[in-house]
Amino acid sequence: MKHFVSLSQSPTAELQHVIDVAKRLKKQLKETGRNDPILAGKTLAMIFEKPSLRTRVSFTVGMTQLGGAALSLNRDEVGLGVREPVKDVARVLASMADGVMARVFEHDKLLELQKWSSVPIINGLSDYSHPCQAMADLLTIDEHFGKLAGLTMAYVGDGNNVARSLAVACGKFGMHFCIASPPGYCFDGEDIAAIQARVPGFDICFFKEPKDCVATADVVVTDTWISMGQEAEKATRVAEFAGFAIDEALMANAPAHAIVLHCLPAYRGYEISEGVLESERSKVFQEAENRLHVQKGILAVLLGGA
User: Fold this and answer.
1) CATH of the domain at 268
2) Do 73 and 46 have their domain in common?
3) Is residue 260 helix, strand or coil?
4) What is the per-residue pLDDT across 73-110, written as a single tens digit (0 to 9) for each?
5) Which residues fall within 8 angstroms of residue 205, CB to CB, at 6 or more apart?
6) Are residue 145 and residue 282 in the same domain, yes or no?
7) Which positions are annotated as active-site residues?
8) Which helix (H) or strand (E) holds 205?
């Protein structure tokens, strides 16, 4: 694995290795209070075009716990494709840092960084995918059920970057993926064809009604209806997503053992209810913590040869 830009680029064995390394590092940290400094002397440059809590903290703390350092650069300082061409930024950062994590709007910027960089590029989020989040979700599911293959994930809500990455993740690890979205908000034909071409084992089913989508689910997932950059669409989206909230009434249709995930930030009363988010079925904050451990797995493999 040279870069971590999308899950579809990496064979399942490599992704499983990242999860295994993340488990080992998490166990070591919990048992000893520290990790071996396997990234001593290494630096990660982090570009943020979007606001960030979990991505910024997990990568910064992860590098520190592994003995390295992280440098945060905001949108105005870098100006990807505005102040400087993306290819120039890629080559400059590669000459000074050991890896680059970028949290951007346009996915094409990540592809351009990858093309020109001689050091690993990590996708911290783009408008098309969020592979780090999907890996944290896989780790959380595996910790709870002790397996991934054969489980069913039901995604209710916007067919966005998180949903795409989760669909690919399920295909890679032999999970069934079901999705319920309002008309016009699900994957388009191009998305489906691209996933099926790269993930031969991709198994997806579509539902019009959320209650049918969650009926056989082991894992129920949602995300915000209004992503960054879509604020002007809030009123329209809230109206069109009516009936697609993960609330107590919807979860009554899911198997009793089903757990709930949400990548956060959560907007209580919209895509998820306070009661479900704070219930015993919710593994949302275990999922959030696992961003740190998965990020360390990615860093250890890409920058430390783990």
Assistant:
1) 3.40.50.1370
2) yes
3) strand
4) 988 788 787 889 999 999 999 999 999 999 999 999 99
5) 176, 177, 178, 179
6) yes
7) 103, 130, 133, 223, 263, 291
8) strand 204-207
